Amino acid sequence: MLYQVLFAPATPGTSVVSSKKALRPDWRPRPASSHLEEHQDSGVTHLAWSPDDTKIITCCSQPENSARIWDVKTGACLQCISDFTYPCTTAAWAPDGKHVVIGSQDDKLGCGIWDLSGRQIHNFCEDGSKLRPNDLAISPNGERLVVVTDKSIAVYDFITYQKKCEWHPDAKLTSVTISQDSRHMLVSMNPDMIELMEIDSADLIQRFEGHQQKQFIIRSAFGGADENFVVSGSEGESIPSISTRKLLTSRVRFENIHLALERAARRSTRCASRLCQQHRVASNGPQRFRICGRRH
């Protein structure tokens, strides 16, 4: 089963594919450059490229409950961070590529920052806060960390590590992506909803619906060199995407997952890396996107 596809941010046409037990860096139909299979029979729940494309961080479920940092070229595991007693669910690289933020279901280590030697730099739960992230994201300018749990969105100053604000939407939250201008966040929610919001105020800019999202962790992302559309995984067999240019008009496109990934591989680096942040797919038929809640 295909769990996640990520394109390298700085190397056109290079991707990493995660399945139940292994990772395959590189892009079909060429042979995979390596298989990263040292996960001790644990599912790979999440992965992320380093900013310079030389490394990958992976998160593991039980029994390993760890995060691993890999050398992409050699396939060697450079570091295994195994401080957790419950599954790791998500991770992100700091823009400088020297630190990673890891989220887990561990109440004492739910969200923290580690350097590449495996040393913890900061624990966002040290004040007694219980964070169990489904996803997290660092703004491209390095100023904000957004952490999404089942029922909350928490925004931290990534320089001082202080919490700036927190919201509790009336929905189960599954993923977050931050725009390249570091001002907006795209949040996927159960059931069947994606919201585009201002990071520091949570003001709703746009709401999207039409895909299927009820049972699984479904992720969405900005697509295109100008981030002028949104693409999302679905519990259906296709990826729905929709234009967000100027947030005033909608041009619905229906793309099969295989065609979408092939097109992404041929586009510019930035387009490819943003288009395929994550796809979690089953086979229940094609899906359609529609816009609602438009702000004028």
Mean pLDDT: 75
Helix content: under 10%
- Strand order within the widest beta sheet: 16-17-18-19-24
Q: Please state the second-level CATH architecture.
A: 7 Propeller
- How many distinct beta strands? 24
Distance between the termini: 41 Å
User: How many structural domains can be distinguished in the coordinates?
Assistant: 1
- 3D shape: globular
> Low-confidence spans: pLDDT under 50, at least 5 residues?
15-22, 243-262, 268-296
Count of individual helical segments:
2
- What is the ordering of alpha helices and beta strands? EEEEEEEEEEEEEEEEEEEEEEEHHE
Percent strand equals 35-45%
- Here the CATH topology equals Methylamine Dehydrogenase, Chain H
Work out the radius of gyration: 18 Å
- Biggest sheet overview: 5 strands, antiparallel
Structural class: mainly beta
Give the CATH class: Mainly Beta
CATH superfamily: YVTN repeat-like/Quinoprotein amine dehydrogenase
Overview of the structural elements:
It is a single chain. The chain is mainly beta and 296 residues long. The protein has a single domain, classed as Methylamine Dehydrogenase, Chain H (7 Propeller), CATH 2.130.10. Helices cover 6% and strands 41% of the residues. It has 2 helices and 24 strands. Strands 16-17-18-19-24 form a 5-stranded antiparallel sheet, with no helix packed on it. Strands 4-5-6-7 form a 4-stranded antiparallel sheet, with no helix packed on it. Strands 8-9-10-11 form a 4-stranded antiparallel sheet, with no helix packed on it. The C terminus is likely disordered.
